[in-house]
From TrEMBL:
<protein>
    <recommendedName>
        <fullName>DUF1009 domain-containing protein</fullName>
    </recommendedName>
</protein>
<dbReference type="Pfam" id="PF06230">
    <property type="entry name" value="LpxI_C"/>
</dbReference>
<dbReference type="Pfam" id="PF17930">
    <property type="entry name" value="LpxI_N"/>
</dbReference>
<feature type="domain" description="LpxI N-terminal">
    <location>
        <begin position="11"/>
        <end position="142"/>
    </location>
</feature>
<dbReference type="InterPro" id="IPR041255">
    <property type="entry name" value="LpxI_N"/>
</dbReference>
<dbReference type="InterPro" id="IPR053174">
    <property type="entry name" value="LpxI"/>
</dbReference>
<dbReference type="InterPro" id="IPR043167">
    <property type="entry name" value="LpxI_C_sf"/>
</dbReference>
<dbReference type="InterPro" id="IPR010415">
    <property type="entry name" value="LpxI_C"/>
</dbReference>
<feature type="domain" description="LpxI C-terminal">
    <location>
        <begin position="146"/>
        <end position="280"/>
    </location>
</feature>
Length: 292
């Protein structure tokens, strides 16, 4: 176990965005005997962090984040949770040495896709002498596994939808746009954009209610890593809320990439899936590009 005592420069920092993942990682680190320091992002993290050493900091304040690393002996950092809003260029505060290490900070934030931006953030953190680790390294049990997670498995129609949605998700990922796609009756009907997976599923439900999607055929949500994605940040994730939205959209189930996706509240997710008649399964899509 890593030494997390102040002054050792190996304490773990959790940069916490929105969603449930930051809390899972923090609790798991604490259970391992660590004393994680939480950097809760302004207007993103809604958790009550009173049980942890923490501070609230804006996402563009790289100088402040670096100062917190030095002040609290941080040697490792994990990026967790979603970020809904990118900082404007005027909100960016970075030390000169970081700008030398990553000279295209502003251009990347304004024009880059999510994975491009996350890779830049990792480089900024590393310029402070801090090692970035993946959430799955802190909580390895969160990784999705191959095959059905519950008692239900995809049938032939669902397998065809999985193949169609997986191909679309990989194509979308090459553009660094999103990680998810929905296929119904072998036809791709929705791609994940800036609204995220939840917003996409809500859109599918609206399309089905309006008669734009077949009422007879169910369909599947597929979430995959982007080709070439750095696996230390923004792994595809699903949880009970994803399942509820998939059910509301009339889908037969969810497929995620085995070994490269996170499954939150697995026991509750599987229980709800079995009770609701949906499958959740881990797949190994064919890839031509490698990821870290």
């Amino acid at each position: 176990m890593a030494d997390s005592r102040p002054g050792t420069r190996d304490r773990l920092a959790i940069i916490a965005g929105g969603g449930q993942l930051p809390r899972y990682v923090a609790e798991a680190a604490k259970a391992r005997g660590e004393s994680p320091y939480i950097l809760a992002l302004t207007n993103e993290s809604a958790d009550d962090w009173s049980g942890f050493d923490h501070e609230v900091i804006s996402i563009g304040n790289y100088a402040g984040i670096g100062a917190a690393f030095r002040r609290h002996g941080i040697g490792r950092a994990v990026l967790t949770g979603w970020v809904r809003r990118r900082p404007e260029w005027r909100d960016i505060h970075a030390p000169f040495k970081a700008l030398l290490a990553v000279p295209s900070v502003v251009r990347t934030l304004l024009r880059g896709g999510d994975d491009t931006v996350l890779k830049m953030v990792i480089r900024l953190i590393e310029s402070e002498g801090v090692r970035v680790v993946g959430a799955h390294e802190i909580v390895p049990g969160l990784l999705g596994t191959e095959g059905p997670l519950g008692r239900l498995a995809p049938d032939a129609a669902a397998e065809a939808d999985i193949a169609a949605a997986a191909a679309a998700a990989l194509a979308l990922g090459r553009l660094d746009v999103g990680q998810g796609a929905v296929a119904v009756g072998g036809r791709v009907v929705a791609l994940e954009g800036a609204e995220g997976t939840d917003g996409m599923l809500e859109r599918v439900a609206e399309l089905r209610a309006a008669g734009r999607i077949s009422q007879r055929r169910k369909g599947v949500l597929v979430k995959l890593c982007k080709p070439g994605q750095d696996l230390r940040a923004d792994l595809p994730a699903i949880g009970p809320e994803t399942l509820r939205l998939a059910k509301a959209a009339g889908l037969a189930g969810i497929a995620v990439e085995a070994g490269r996706s996170l499954v939150l509240e697995r026991a509750a997710l599987v229980c709800e899936a079995d009770a609701g008649g949906l499958f959740v399964t881990g797949i190994l899509p064919e890839r031509t590009e490698g990821g870290r």
